[in-house]
Amino acid sequence: MSVTVKDIASKLGISVSTVSRVLNDKAEKYRISTKTKKLVLQTAEELNYRPNFLARGLRLKKTKTIGLIIPDISNPFFAHVTRMIQLAIYKSGYSLIVCNTDENIDIEVEEIELLRSKGVDGFIILPVGTEYNHIEKLIQDKIPLVLLDRCFDELQTNAVIVDNYLGAYNAVQHLIENGHKRIAIIQGLPNTYTNNERVTGYKMALKDNKIPIDENLIVGNDFRKENGYIETKFLLNIDNPPSAIFTTSDLITLGALKAIFEEGIRIPEEISLVAFDEIEFAPFLIAPLSVVSQPKDLMGEIAVKILIDDIHGKTNEEKQRIVLKPKLIVRQSVSTINRTDNIRAISKINK
Fold first, then answer.
1. What share of the chain is helix, strand, coil (3-state, %, to 5)?
2. Which is it for the CA torsion 294, 298, 304, 309, positive or negative?
3. What is the DSSP secondary structure assignment for residue 210, as one 8-state letter?
4. Nearest to 308 by CA among 148, 131, 121
5. Fold of the 164-294+329-350 domain
6. Prediction pTM value
7. How many Cβ atoms sit within 10 Å of the Cβ of residue 270?
8. What is the pLDDT at residue 281?
9. Alpha-carbon distance 62 to 121, whole Å?
10. Fewer beta carbons within 10 angstroms: which end of the chain, N or C?
């Protein structure tokens, strides 16, 4: 059975309030002697006393706990961001409860309600991104909240995002500058903020270079590895295959790489590849992968700072939207071709 404040008081023959004040670091305020303070702390340690944070939270209406909602813990990007948030949260003196929604909006709604029932002090949410009514309810109830990675233009709330449009534009522009015209994109979950921005950046780069947009080269339906694998298989075997592929997440890239290797196709000699997100092993492939790198560490740290400030009432009524810049890292996964060439088509003919 857990040791209580009353047990410590009974053992020492002093009042419960005195013990409570010492354990809550208020001995000096209530002029409790150094001797008594030392006795209380020593006895608490001997009895292996552990404070009841739930009871304290109910009393103070603060639990010192943050709820983190993420869409896919198996995704290396989300796993890394979660780790950075965890480190920053602990440094701030809070605990973290992590919920994985598996990119399912119904699970997201349920997990938010679960965390609300546990009385978390605030939320960091990386939403699925297809609906926002349940998130709007948090805003209406004035619960501290930061949206991370994916957001909604319709919601007035704190958000930390990356300039996905710019990252995609620069990736496709790099391919075009190396002579590529038939550029495919494997997108993530359609009609989400992140995906829409990346697809728009892709299209605008083509448009600015007067390259017609071929809707047959815009494929994919989620951010998972299977999506990258299946769509790459199809792209590599169509009659007029692309000379380059732009993948929009690290898991999609993993699937694409698997399909490319199974087909016996060489990067970059037969197919060029640029990925959004920096896969950990990208620099160590036979053809080190060119990527759009996101500032993952900063994203988590900034989100935590904004949330903690909001919880402590240090922010203004006006919410913050922090937009971070991605960086195109050029390595060796893009070949330079003549504008009239189609290396993949030549390769298929020779097989």
1. 45, 15, 40
2. negative
3. T
4. 121
5. Rossmann fold (3.40.50)
6. 0.80
7. 20
8. 77
9. 6
10. N
